[in-house]
Amino acid sequence: MRPPLPYALDAQLAVGQLLQGPMDAGAIDAFIAAHTFPIVEGPRVTFVYRGRADAVHLRHFIFGLPSTQPFAHAEGSDFWYLVVEIPENSRFEYKIEVVRDGHGQWMEDPLNAVKTADPFGNNSVCRTAGYVLPDWTVPDAETRTGALEELGINSRALGREVRVTLYLPARFRRTRRYPLLIVHDGPDYLHYAGLKTVLDNLIHRMDVGELVAAFLHPHNRLAEYANSPEHGRFLARELVPELEARLPLLGTAEGRCLMGASFGGVASLAAAVQYPGFFGRLLLQSGSFAFTDIGPQKRGPAFEPVVKFMNGFRASPAKVADRVFLSCGTYESLIYENRSLVPLLQATGMNVRYVESRDGHNWENWRDRSRDGLSWLLPGPLWMVYE
Amino acid sequence: MNPMPSRLPRRGPAPSPPRGSAARSGTRVTLLGPQRLQPTLSPVLESLGVEGPVATITAGWQEREPDDRELHEHLGGRSLNLMLYQRAERVFARDPELSAAHQRRQARLRELQDLYNVRLDHLMAAAYELQRRPGETELLSQARVDAIEAIRSLDAQHLQRVRDVHTEYDRRWQPDERETVIRERREVEAMVRDAPAVAVAGGHVAILLNRLRLFGLEQLAAGKVLVAWSAGAMAISERVVLFHDHPAHGMGNAEVLEVGLGFAPGIVPLPHARTRLRLEDRDRVGVFAARFAPAICVPMNEGARLDATPQGWAPAPGTEQLQTDGRVGEAGAA
Description:
The complex is a heterodimer. By secondary structure, chain A is an alpha/beta fold. Chain A is built from ten helices and 19 strands. In chain A, helix 8 links the parallel strand 16 and strand 17 (323-329). In chain A, helix 6 (229-246) crosses helix 7 (263-274). Chain B is of the alpha/beta class. Chain B has a seven-stranded mixed beta sheet. In chain B, strands 7-8 form a two-stranded antiparallel sheet. In chain B, strand 13 and strand 14 (328-330) form a beta hairpin. The longest helix of chain B has 37 residues, at 96-132. The model of chain B is unreliable at 1-22 (pLDDT under 50). Chains A and B meet through helix 10 and strand 19 of A and strand 5 and helix 8 of B.
């Protein structure tokens, strides 16, 4: 006879039904073959691991929940499971930790084919009910694609040659004038957020206007992106003038947009503060806008210049751009800082839009929010064009 | 969905025959659905008895105006692109005073549009809210009618303001009398002289409309067959209505942009309606149809066709129209 189901485990759940029957290898094989994992049933998500282990944990990146959650073991089998409640429309990344002989190993979920990559490696992805992968994030056969070109710019401010990957839209013409989008952490945005595909699709669909993008390759990003005056000078006094000389760009504040995530968001805001009115558009995703009201900051030494900058800006906020778009995931530790920034920016007279999502501090979150930001900051002719 | 108030027709009256300048100039007008994926222009011209060269206008494509190879081939190599976009660029380059005046006018129109949209957003929100409110009392029905009337009144007022801007511009700058414009017009008129038909493609509707105005489409198309699709159909209609029910931002309210050229009285052409409108949303469809009644709102999807005849508009089988009861039905079946 099987033991009673654990507390709070609904017998209606797929795993609940499995556990009520004989847990032999055949039953488990059939169960695994019949489902995709994790199993999403309304707001409940069931994670499964099968194999020899002393313990299994879910390691996730949802701020607010315990970052380690233990799986239950079905006695007499190699079947481990965990049911958690996650709100609908969520997307989060995780790993599974398998402990054997006192040694824990983090791994991608062997049963989940949906994975994502970031600079620190791969993660498994859980999408709860209601989350839909935006169709503009994947290549579309009808979309005309832009081109990428590599460029090196000698920067006196930074004392090095800065590598820039230029994006030129499909049907780029020198007789036109384009807005300029400057993207911090350029290679990561291209590789992990698929921003070239996103730009191609959004421009093709006329959600976003045709634009030129400069994807910056960072060197020592924690230093250069943390309110470094040299970085700001490079952007405003070297990069932009050089690109405006080489390319048919609008050359106006509303035609210059700074974009960045995490520390890249700080770099964008800091440069706009350093050169108020020069960059008319800011797209700030999950900015690391750490500040203190009292006492020391606890995020580590890299944040010292950020906190100093943010405390100064919060004390004397000023209108530095015309439009600012912010986004942040509600599962991020930075949600408080980003929410706090919104009314502060609005009070300066800047036109501010803020979007939250049930997602974490990761590149696919930033990808999924890019349409909201880009289409508002650099809108396309959707309303005017009927081909 | 609550049905629209009984005071408004469940379906607009049958479209009137073309009147006004288009009829006076003897132009025969046909509106088509988009041509990029399923071109029908060539057989349509054949059905209209058109032989010989076809003057084409692709100014809505802007810098891509000359990229008309597919259209040219579809017409069997008999198209003659009037290159109105390039001609307008030349005019503006040679006549800086007119160019500056044109830019000022466009800035004024943009400001006007912005102000109109502020008011429109609130009126549309009120109309939808009343439309969705449960119940069928007499007062609610009257409130729905009044809400639509308020939008119609705003649209009419806006169109008059736009008309005033154009009138003032024409009076002050007299583009028809400027040497640079006259020179280009003469060339275009010579090109069109032996063409029995003029075909206007889509693209950027405001840019296209401005070029059609500048070079006098009414004179160019006089006595000829005029076929237009997508933005071309919008530009030659009575009023240009922009629409998209699910944009990335904003309310997605259809907005009146401009006074059209008036070749298609009684019709509001809606190119790509299948992808741009929520045709299954009866509240939105009903409000849309009632707002522009008695004009007929016609989804101009691939294959759609409307011919102006002495008896009125003749839709091809399968061509649809928005109805005030929120449905999409066959056009001309009233």
